[in-house]
Amino acid sequence: MCDWCTKHGAGKRWYMNARNYSNELADELRAKEYLSEQWTNFEQVYIRKIMGISSVDLGYKLKLPIIGRVLRWQAERMIHSESKNRNPRRADGHFGQVIPLEEAKIILGNLAAEPIIENYCMCRWMQRGIKERCCINFGVLSTVIEKLPRFIPENNTARISREEAMERIEEHNRRGYVASVWFQPVPYINAICSCENPECGGLRLRQDFGLHTVYKSEYVVRVDADNCQACGMCVHKCQFGAIRLVPSLGRAVVDPRRCWGCGVCRHSCAHDALNLVPREEVPVARGRF
Amino acid sequence: MLGLPEKIRIEVDYEKCGERGKVDPRECCRCLRVCDPAVLIMHETLSVEQDPIDPQYWRITPVWNSLCTKCMKCVEVCPEGAIRVF
Questions:
Q1: Would you say A110 and A104 are in contact if contact means Cβ atoms under 8 Å apart?
Q2: Could you give the strand order of the β-sheet that contains A116-120, starting from the edge strand earlier in sequence?
Q3: Nearest partner of A58 among B69, B70, B39, B64, judged by Cα
Q4: Backbone angles phi, psi at B41, to 5 degrees
Q5: What pLDDT, in 10s, does the model give residues B9-65?
Q6: CA-nearest residue of chain B to A148?
Q7: Are B63 and A130 in contact (CB < 8 Å)?
Q8: A89 and chain B: CB distance < 8 Å anywhere?
Q9: Rounded to two decimals, what is the model's pTM?
């Protein structure tokens, strides 16, 4: 379990704690005000200057001597902020974790607060100009997003039932999208995304710049050498380049240091050769979220 | 010489693309889609007064410059010749 489970999991994983989904918690955190402000200005998050610095050419800024280290420290502080005066415009306290399909379905089937909506993904919109309806949001956040026309399909049928939500997340996952669950703001949970790397803002900041906007899942994938037929289908599915086909060996090999444990590769395997195992059981991946 | 990292400069001419140009980036998006490492970001124009609920003026800004491979595909694909990489 990660440090956020210890803090907000009540003995379980943080996203399995029902309290983190409750309307009472949303009220307590004044989540409606926070989320309205955050989502109205979502696409500005990298552009707007915060204390004189924006995320424009963040890669360069992070590599600068001294300034880069201060910037990294400040960014991590913002991402994981639990302070009362969090700034929604810079998405303070908004971060998540990758989860396998099974857990995403448990959340959508049992824990997610009504109403549930499926709106256009804003990351793909910002990065690629593509309006893809695959972001499942719930609770207070749904009522906020419904008022913003750019995220809502034209016939305004954003709302979906619990069963539909579970079907949709399975569809996205099979398509190769990585399921992730989000604090927004911590510890209130209100979104399950279906991400691509690097189009997802969170995955980009983590993969390319090492900022902890998204944690890896509680699992990693293991290849069953006996079952693997070396077809290589899983290699194409992996968003993180963690799987390699070794033709001479006649099987696929997973690098547990690169594996996010999203489980998406499993959908491509016709031979039942890929299984998720708990992260703790794999020495090189243990504790590395 | 001072140990500064290499800086990749990408410029978008907002007289050609954006709220003052002929092209609305929301309709075009060619540069966003052609870029393999997804360096460019589309966002509502900040300096212009607009409806916060449904902003009308949008711009392209290069944000992840350090990941640019200088393949120049964005320069080639832009119908207005608004992008410069150097």
A1: no
A2: A159-160, A116-120, A133-138, A189-195, A178-183, A95-98, A214-215
A3: B64
A4: -125, 140
A5: 999 999 999 989 889 999 999 999 999 999 999 999 998 889 989 999 999 999 999
A6: B53
A7: no
A8: no
A9: 0.94
Alpha helices in A114-246 (DSSP H): 122-128, 140-145, 162-175, 201-209, 233-237
Nearest CA in chain A to B56: A150
Contact yes or no for B44 and A43 at CB 8 A = yes
Distance CA A154, CA A158 (A): 9
CATH of span A219-281: 3.30.70.20
- Looking at chain A, the domain(s) classified CATH 3.30.70.20 span 219-281
| Tens-place pLDDT, residues A212-267 | 999 999 999 999 999 999 999 999 999 999 999 999 999 999 999 999 999 999 99
Please, what are the domains in chain B?
10-85 (3.30.70)
Contact A63 B44 (CB under 8 A): no
Closest CB to B7 among A60, A128, A147: A60
Tell me if residue A84 falls in helix, strand or coil. coil
Judged by phi (left if over 0) then psi (alpha if -120 to 50, else beta), residue A288 lies in beta
| Cβ-defined contact of B29 to A41 (cutoff 8 Å) | no
- Distance separating alpha carbons of residues A211 and A200, to the nearest angstrom: 13
Q: How many CA atoms lie within 13 A of A217 on its CB side?
A: 24
A49: nearest CA in chain B?
A: B46
